[in-house]
Amino acid sequence: MTTPEDLPIRCPQCGNRDARRSDRPSVLDGVMRLFRRVPYRCRVCKHRFYDVWLSPPPPKKR
User: Which of 34, 53, 54, 55 sits 20 to 30 Å CA-CA off 19?
Assistant: First the structure.
């Protein structure tokens, strides 16, 4: 069974489905997280964008 977390994220700039979670935290990332948005980066055009976070948050690093 396919869940929303299994579906590839589509880049809004180039339309490619080869995007991954972006791991560079910023102040804006923290604010967007409050609205269940997480950063992704397209592996083709390198565009960084936010998409809805459907899964539970990962544990915070200490």
Answer: 34
